[in-house]
Amino acid sequence: MTDIQTLVQNQKTMFRAGKTMTYTYRIHQLQKLQEMLNRYEPRIYESLHKDLNKSSYEVLTTEFGFLQQEINYTIKHLREWMQPKKVKTPTTHKGAKSLIYKQPYGVTLIISPWNYPLHLAIAPLIGAIAAGNTAIIKPSELTPYTSELIKEMITETFEEKYITVVQGDKEVSQELLEQPLDFIFFTGSVNVGKIIMEKASQQLIPVTLELGGKSPCIVDKDAKLEYAARRITWGKFVNAGQTCVAPDYLLVHRDIKQPLIDHLKKEIEKMYSEDPMQSGDFSKIVNDAHFDRLVSYLDQGKIVYGGKSDRTNRQINPTLVDNVDWTSKMMHDEIFGPILPILTYENLEEIHDHIEHSRNPLALYFFSENEKKQEWAIKNISFGGGCINDTIMHLGNNQLPFGGIGTSGIGKYHGKYSFDAFTHEKSVLKQTTSFDLAFRYPNSKVGRKILKKLFK
């Protein structure tokens, strides 16, 4: 038996012992998780800076702070979430009670990506703990400092048979996917998501897939351009554009394209200076392969701002590219970097044709002061979630489910939705033994007549 097989079997043994089922146990583990993050806070900032050159501001707002908020919210509401939910019972079931019990899946696997290596490993873990599961975390090998820190933190804080970290490359992931797991939570690319789903289907293991896609940012001619430019700049270039819900491309009404470009240039310089690579606070690209892929896009279209790159430090300045269309290489896949192509439209109906090239994006952003147009975009375009007159802020509200649709993902999480993601809702009907309804049985003389009435 391999180490991974033994690990999974040990977690199954612990889960079957029922230790994770109680409210007291789960709350205690969430508190330990919270204390762990606080204890390691300085090293969290250090490791994320080493891996991705993340500024302390970015670590606080997009990684550490988010997790603190999520844990606090879960601790506050967990007792309520765990309670069986009573639902209505039809007249045909007189004397019975109908309830939905919240059952944990069992041994869960969390495969996390490199772009937010702490956030996207620990946020699903909060849901797994809250729902009463055990968990194996497989962090990305592309962010070695943070992955090693996650392993150290988890090893020091939790029993291996409850929560553990397994490091390694895709061969390790493949071995994990061969195990008799009870649930898989994956965040990453569409192509790898397909592999995860295929492997899970062989054992009928339920999955949540948080993927990505080309998220459009639409700016109509009545938008407030100063606000739009500021919010687009922030949403696009945080973490050097390596965000699954970053605006992937701009769809701008042709009448306001140049004024918007002018505003974007100003906002980039306000937030990141004229040369962000020299500021020391702009995130770097995760590895050479991703850097080379992004640089290959820079010879397409017309660079109207930025374009400077440094291979030694794997950095690319915020870049705006005009004269791009759907035949351009950068429009074939999610960009996942600090390059923002600009396309134009004249009528709202044209937007459909653009988005059809990369359907079901994870996010959509629409800037307009016209409520009818806003509602048109919300109702007529398929996307995972998004914002009107803002970018990526929907992630920060744990009352909103976060997840994709179609090629951008399956399932959702954040807040209570994380608890729900790691929970099977078990339907139970409790029948009375005080009496019995004779008409439900086939030998009842009046049964058919009564049932016909009740069903109507």
UniProtKB/TrEMBL annotation:
Domain Aldehyde dehydrogenase positions: 3-428
Active site per UniProt: E210, C244
Any one Gene Ontology BP term: aldehyde metabolic process
Molecular function in Gene Ontology: aldehyde dehydrogenase (NAD+) activity
Top-level taxonomic group: Bacteria
Entry's Gene Ontology cellular component terms: cytoplasm
Keywords carried by this UniProt record: NAD, Oxidoreductase
PANTHER family: ALDEHYDE DEHYDROGENASE, ALDEHYDE DEHYDROGENASE TYPE III, ISOFORM Q
Recorded family membership: Belongs to the aldehyde dehydrogenase family.
Protein name: Aldehyde dehydrogenase
Organism in which the protein naturally occurs: Aquisalibacillus elongatus
